[in-house]
């Protein structure tokens, strides 16, 4: 049997945490890009476009992320794609994030007074220019706190990808626990590592919220 | 391609899916009741308790909110036995869900308590009610009314999160799905059906909570 010292455990967990960070970033960036597309559909003039986007958001907010990941993992091979845990994890979290981010940003767009659109139109801007120059910058600016708050949720959600076999922090900790039989220490450390990643973001979101409240 | 969807197994699986859904519902009912109760105590303690208690509740909330539910579940189910606390999977699941939920609802309930004007407490005290009566009869009902929508969302989020407890072999909806797909080799179809069951559950739960809240707490609850 191999002996693991405390430092061996911690080092292996920290190495695995790199994948948690990478997956979180990939899902946040991917979710941001797809979320922008969903947002365009969600705030379009066309009734059907809005309905489809609402349905998309309701679908992802009304089902467990674990199920979404399973469907990615077992559904992608049916489309003829080679399946890797990484692909399923990154794509699953991307779609999950896109629904939440689109809804957060939509609330920002809705919060702007109607006059902002009218002012843009009266300056002769067309729809896309209005969005790009007037509406979206303001909508993003007032929804910065919930966006950061969602990032915390996303980092925590990456833990679920261990279940479909992606080798991140939790999956590595399961393996270490099976070798050392020290679940109290191992899962305690995992919780601590997640806390160190998430707590600064939580505090940042709070600071943004306070700043927004003052203004 | 050449892969056709096949739902022929569904007829024989309805019972298992219904049993799993029933367990999921049972879990969320217990969690909602215990979690809300705990968070009322927590929120009150955080406002009126001794300094040490306030700080302890603050730390508890931060730790639970900044770590994944899956890790909390593993810590409770695998970690606690090493200090002598051994729990059934279903008890561990209920405990983890309740503790997780309470961390979020302590903040929600707290916001509701803060939203009740100070004059309400003063008026009730002036009428000769004891402090506990003031809290239970005057402040709490008004606070619950304010926070009801946020509480509803949190309950639904928790219901969706409960899928994770299949990982410690609690026989709820996701666990039954895992078993079914292992037997039928129709993984995608199985998870698709079960995902739809979750969707129906979450939409139904929301509708039930909204209409129930309207009846109990009065109009204005959305």
Automatic annotation (TrEMBL), chain A:
GO terms for cellular component: ATP-binding cassette (ABC) transporter complex. It comes from the Bacteria. It is a multi-pass membrane protein. Keywords: Cell membrane, Membrane, Transmembrane, Transmembrane helix, Transport. GO terms for biological process: amino acid transport. SUPFAM superfamilies: MetI-like. One of its GO terms (molecular function) is transmembrane transporter activity. InterPro entries: AA_ABC_transptr_permease_3TM, ArtM/GltK/GlnP/TcyL/YhdX-like, MetI-like, MetI-like_sf. It is found in: Cell inner membrane; Cell membrane. The chain crosses the membrane at residues 20-41, 53-74, 86-105, 186-205. Residues 17-205 form the ABC transmembrane type-1 domain. Gene3D superfamilies: MetI-like. Belongs to the binding-protein-dependent transport system permease family. HisMQ subfamily. PANTHER family: BLR6398 PROTEIN (PTHR30614:SF34), MEMBRANE COMPONENT OF AMINO ACID ABC TRANSPORTER (PTHR30614). This is Amino acid ABC transporter, permease protein. It comes from Mesorhizobium metallidurans STM 2683. The lineage of its organism: Bacteria, Pseudomonadati, Pseudomonadota, Alphaproteobacteria, Hyphomicrobiales.
Automatic annotation (TrEMBL), chain B:
Pfam families: BPD_transp_1 (PF00528). Residues 21-209 form the ABC transmembrane type-1 domain. GO terms for cellular component: ATP-binding cassette (ABC) transporter complex. Its main location: membrane. One of its GO terms (biological process) is amino acid transport. Coiled coil: none annotated. PROSITE patterns: ABC_TM1. It is found in: Cell inner membrane; Cell membrane. InterPro entries: AA_ABC_transptr_permease_3TM (IPR010065), ArtM/GltK/GlnP/TcyL/YhdX-like (IPR043429), MetI-like (IPR000515), MetI-like_sf (IPR035906). PANTHER family: ABC TRANSPORTER PERMEASE PROTEIN, MEMBRANE COMPONENT OF AMINO ACID ABC TRANSPORTER. This is Polar amino acid ABC transporter, inner membrane subunit.
